[in-house]
Design goal:
Elements: H1 2-29, H2 37-45, H3 50-74, H4 82-98, H5 103-119, H6 126-148, H7 152-180, H8 185-214
Helix pairs in contact: 1-2, 1-6, 2-6, 3-5, 3-6, 4-5, 7-8
Length: 215
C-alpha cells in the first residue's frame, strides 16, 4: 500500500512537471502575456482520477468564463471600489446559486471576478489570458490523465476486458470441440469449469468498472 502511494505521488510529480512545461510553452507560442495561468490551471485540474480531472476542468472553465466576461464588461462603466467588488461577487456567485451550479463553479466565478477586478485595469489582456490559460491547462491535464499516465483503475478495466475476450474465445472453442466429440461427459465438465471462470471474470470486470467510474 505504501509503495503504491509513493508510485502515485511520483506519477503526480511527473505529470505536474511535464504538463506545466508544456502548458507554459503553448501559452508563450500563443502570445499570452500571463503565461503562468496555463500551468496554474493544469496543476489545479490534475485530480486523483480521470473522472475528477474532467469534472473539475469543466467546472473551472465554466466558472472562469462567467466571472471574466461579467467583470470585464462591467468594470468599463463603474469605478473600482470595494463596494463595486462586493456587488460583483454577490451578483456573480448569486447567478451560480440561482442556476444551481456546482460549488467548484461558484468558487471559480468568485476568483475570476476578484482577479480580473484587481488586474484588468493594469493589464487589459488579463481577462482573455485567464480564459485562454484556463482552457489550455485544463485540456493538457485531461490529455495527461487519459493518454500519458492513465490511472491504475483504467488499466485494470482494460486488462479485465482483454481477459474476458480470451475466456470467451476459449469457451467457444471448447464448446465446438465438445459438439464434435458427440457431447462427451469429460468435455462437459471442462466447459462447466470454463463457464464458472468466465462468470467470475465478468463479475470482477463489473466491479472494477464501477470503481473506475466512482473515482
Amino acid at each position: 500500500m505504501t509503495t503504491n502511494k509513493w508510485n502515485e505521488q511520483a506519477i503526480l510529480v511527473i505529470k505536474i512537471a511535464i504538463g506545466s512545461a508544456i502548458a507554459y510553452q503553448v501559452s508563450k507560442l500563443l502570445g499570452l502575456s500571463h503565461s503562468y495561468l496555463a500551468p496554474l490551471s493544469l496543476i489545479l485540474c490534475l485530480q486523483p482520477s480521470l473522472n475528477q480531472s474532467v469534472q473539475f476542468s469543466f467546472r473551472r472553465v465554466v466558472g472562469t468564463i462567467i466571472g471574466v466576461l461579467m467583470t470585464t464588461f462591467i468594470i468599463q462603466y463603474v469605478p473600482m471600489t470595494s463596494w463595486v467588488l462586493g456587488i460583483l461577487l454577490l451578483v456573480g456567485t448569486g447567478i451560480a446559486v440561482l442556476f444551481k451550479l456546482n460549488a467548484v463553479i461558484l468558487h471559480q466565478v468568485a476568483l475570476s471576478i476578484l482577479l480580473v477586478f484587481a488586474l484588468e485595469k493594469n493589464a487589459s489582456d488579463y481577462g482573455l489570458d485567464r480564459m485562454t490559460g484556463t482552457l489550455i491547462g485544463s485540456i493538457i491535464a485531461i490529455i495527461l490523465q487519459l493518454f500519458i499516465f492513465p490511472p491504475n483503475s483504467l488499466k485494470k478495466v482494460v486488462r479485465n476486458y482483454e481477459t474476458l475476450t480470451e475466456k470467451y474465445s476459449d469457451l467457444f472453442l471448447h464448446i465446438a470441440a465438445w459438439i464434435e466429440s458427440d457431447l462427451g461427459k469429460e468435455k462437459a465438465g471442462e466447459i462447466d469449469g470454463l463457464k464458472k471462470n468466465l462468470l467470475q471474470a465478468i463479475e470482477t470486470t463489473q466491479q472494477n468498472l464501477q470503481s473506475a467510474k466512482k473515482i
